[in-house]
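User: Hand in any protein.

Assistant:
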Amino acid sequence: QGGTLRGGGGGGDGEPAAPPDGPHVKVVVLAGRNFPDALNAYVKLDTAVESVKTGVVQKSMAPEWCYTAYLQVTGEEDTLQFALCDKKAFGSKEVGASAISLERLKKDVEVAHWYKVDWQAAEVQLAVTACKFGIVPTPKKKPVLTAAQAAAATATHIPISHEELESLFAEVVKNLALPTEAQRDAMFQMPPESKWRMVQQHGLASKKRQEGRIEDKPEYWVGKLKAEPTMQTCSELRVLLSCQPLTWLQRFIELDGLDILSGILGDVEKKHLNASDAAAAAADGGGKASKSKRYKATAEDLALESECIRCLRMVMNNEFGLRAVLSSATTVKNLTLTLDSQGLELRGVVLKLLTVTCMMPPDGHRVLLQAMSYYKAVKNEKARFEGLVRSLKKATTMEMKLGFMYLINALINSPADIDLRVAIRNEFLRLGLADVIAALKSEANDELDLQIDVFEEETNLDATEIKERFQSLEVDIDDVDAVFRTLRKRLDGTGLNPTFLSIMRNLLVIPVDSEAGTKCWLLTARVIRQISLQKESLGATDENTVKLDELLATVEQETLEIEHEAKLEKLDKLCKKLKKQNKTLKIELDEKIQDNKNQLEVIKAKKAIIKKAVETGELPGGVRVAMPDGKGG
């Protein structure tokens, strides 16, 4: 990423900072070239005091960083170390490094140079300035110019207006096809003299292309691919693609050059498949090719396949080309067919291209899943990821093992939807990926260990998130009986008990002791999960789906009936409850009436006794009382 930072800038992010007060070096990381492969490239700078990283330029063989940093140093005895790194999906990898001694730098004099980084022919361009230390240059006497000479020199420096320069430079930046806005902004911060030099270089190249041979034009190469789809044609095209501007590539794709190139690759793969089927038929009396009877590709086939893929890699070296590949109906599908290529080096290139494709938003992951389904159908596989797991298990080199792990992790972890991640991971696990990974743990490789850790950590994180989804239900989701009881309780009073019973009855008749039955259970689980999450579309694959709204529309009448039944069920329960309450109240009322009757009888009995006593003057037990009239004893 373009920018100006002090040491410790953390990957090119941060606010511009002033240079430090003490001895330091100003380092401008300009560009890279001659990369044998596309990288998510960044440069790490180190002195004895500080460390800093540039931003990442995605998927490039010739990145441009235009990044400035100020790093403190101990003095001229210090060394500036720098490393070219590849930002992986999960981690980073150093691909080459070098160092610059500071003892011979002149104070305040910028030294720009291309430095080799111990990765084949790869080079990184740095401009280094020693600040507040270094050899003090001997001042040179400036030649004395006449006023006319000075005016002439100034007049010829940039012979166009500022507005014209900015317009031409904008065209240069557009043709560079820089992947990020920050890089493009950094280019426009260059001084006018540097802009003019680039405009001149670009202008000369453009003029040469415009006035050059017909053989250098996209129209010629599209026609040649159609007429001569050979290894030589593709090889020459690859060289041309590596040095053409974005406008050339755009025109090539507009003329269907990408689809023609993809078609050549597809024809090579179909030739292999047809030959394999023929070999199997001759040996077995018909039928599909077994994996042990695969057609052995000729050297000519492998060479053509290799050049086609390298051409596609050149096309995918910038965002425009990558999006064109994603939009193509066949390119990614034909690339996946080469995953079992007999050329190991070529297979490694394909793995990198597919991993980049998978991680390209917004459609890269979906396009690759469709391509893997296509691979399954064409290669007669039972599962769409069977070939990936088998190849990882049989991989003999660390590069292949890492390549397959990168792609598998990208396929599983790229989706934002946790349920899609879980579903894809389960596809791999059913194919025995866990056992393969367990065997890989014995390998002594830090990068492979990192990829295994990523797989296991993401698995645990997703499992935790799934459990958290059910926490509000207060049920042990791993206990079948507890889940069933909770579900039955939730259905009470909803009118859905008959529907639930119907589901249970249908599940009872799905076989559990056959492959077909297992598939039915898995499909049932997938569709129910999609419904429970209110997915927009339902289906077993990404290609064959049905809109959920359309399915819901088919049960509107039944929904109304169930709602009516639920209301009747509630009214019935209320009626029963009221009847029970009425019965209880009647019993209580009868008991109270009887109590009142009993109390009334007691009162009557007491009243009779009192009346008799009044009349006779004698209480029960023979006791006599004096009456008011003097009678009695």
Notes: Residues 1-16, 151-156, 281-293 have pLDDT under 50 and may be disordered.
